[in-house]
Amino acid sequence: MSEDVGAARTPSEAMDRRLRSRYRAERRFRIYGQAAIGFALSALVLLLGSISYEATSAFTQHEVELEVTLDAEVIDPFGERDRQDLRRADYASLLRTSLRELFPEVRQRRAVRSLSSLLSVGAEFELQRFVLENPDAIGTTRSFSLPVSDDADLFLKGLIDEEVVEGDRKVSDAEMTWLTRLDESGRIHRRFNTRFFTSGDSREAELAGIQGAIRGSFFTLIVTLLLSFPVGVAAALYLEEFAPRSRLTDLIEVNINNLAAVPSIVFGLLGLAVFLNFLGMPRSAPLVGGVVLALMTLPTIIIAGRSALQAVPPSIREAALAVGASPTQAVLHHVLPQALPGILTGTIIGMARALGETAPLLMIGMVAFIVDLPQGPRDPSTVLPVQIYLWSEAPERAFAAKTSAAILVLLAFLVSMNAAAVGVRGRFENRT
Predict the structure, then answer these.
(1) CA dist., res. 273 & res. 26, Å (int)
(2) If you placed Cys at 216, which of 19, 330, 381, 411 could pair as Cys (CB 3.0 to 4.6 Å)?
(3) What is the pTM for the complete model shown?
(4) 70 with 182, same domain?
């Protein structure tokens, strides 16, 4: 009798062991997944934290307050207020005079040059712009807040170690003493660096900004959207709703899928060979960059559009046809509105990818050093990813902070575009 009971319990015990083993495996799998997510989040936080920490100094800029005498003999010796004479005036001498009044003990020529180097070269242009806008101020003494040089700014931010041997750092002992005296006298002010968002690129780190790159990115994306969206949606509609099934359409579908996986630099080579060398389109212009990025984005929009059209229930087509609508009316009036959220989502994601591309734009010359702000898609320009690349190659230490700050701006644009994709999808889904 006991043998029969033991035999009856054996399968149940084996099943319990198998269940416990499955539960343990499931718990391990859950732990592995949580660990993977935690590792990914930790890496992301570490990356964004390091970039944000490096970029902090780029959003502020030190300025020195000086009383500058706008000497008429220097600015307008003929007294004619001619704008060309006002532009050519020696504003640097006015700044040197103002600094020497604060440091009368500095007399040697080399020391005077070192003292003047504490100011940015942009200080001269600040004076020039003020005089051009206010010619009646010539002959008076005015107070100006002028930007300091990038090395002086780094020292004031505590990013230059004073313990390092003088020959191994950019700021000399004398310059450190002068900056300390200016700071203690209340002439040094740390302000938000609006110039970073309002000016174009510059060889001087303290004057460099991303306004030109932002405009170039905007014009490039506008051209990309105007070309890729209508063509991509029309191609998706034709291939999914109207094209007959044949070897030709199958070949087209295969090529579209292959184009979506082609490296972006190949499209840059295409733009260099066709649009620049053959068609003679303007180099370094957002117009060419937009055309190249449109070709790169087109397969993504077509694939996303076809997937969105396939997701529309067949009953909608059948109901439209049953009440007398033509196939074209059924697609345009009933199927397309239902698929529009998915199409727009794919388009915005494709545009976000285009915004972050660098390689194809490097091939068509958008790596050029552009100081003037572009006013249209045909003007020479650069874009945010290329601007980041240029600054990352610059030897000055101050450009490292500028690079990180530009990365944060680019990430903000990408996050905004992806958030817009989610919002647009939700809004159109609620309507439908």
Answers:
(1) 55
(2) 381
(3) 0.85
(4) yes
For 247-279, write each residue's pLDDT tens digit: 888 888 888 888 888 888 888 888 888 888 888
Query: Rounded distance, CA 271 to CA 291, Å?
Result: 8
Residues 194 and 249 in one domain: no
CA distance 306 to 257: 12
Pull the structure tokens for residue 425.
């999808």
Cβ-Cβ contacts under 8 Å for 358 (sequence gap 6 or more): 385, 386, 389
Q: Are residues 39 and 167 in the same domain?
A: no
100 contacts 106 by C-beta, under 8 angstroms: yes
SS3 of 187, please? coil
Same-domain check for residues 333 and 237: yes
Q: State CA 25 to chain mean position distance.
A: 45
Q: Where are the alpha helices (DSSP H) in 332-392?
A: 336-355, 359-363, 384-392
- Cα–Cα distance measured from residue 381 to residue 390, given in angstroms and rounded to the nearest whole number: 13
- Number of compact structural domains in the chain: 3
pLDDT by residue (tens digit) across 45-69? Answer: 999 999 999 899 899 999 999 999 9
Handedness of CA 300, 302, 307, 313 (dihedral sign): positive
Distance of alpha carbon 117 from alpha carbon 178, whole angstroms? 11
Question: Do 86 and 182 fall within a single domain?
Answer: yes
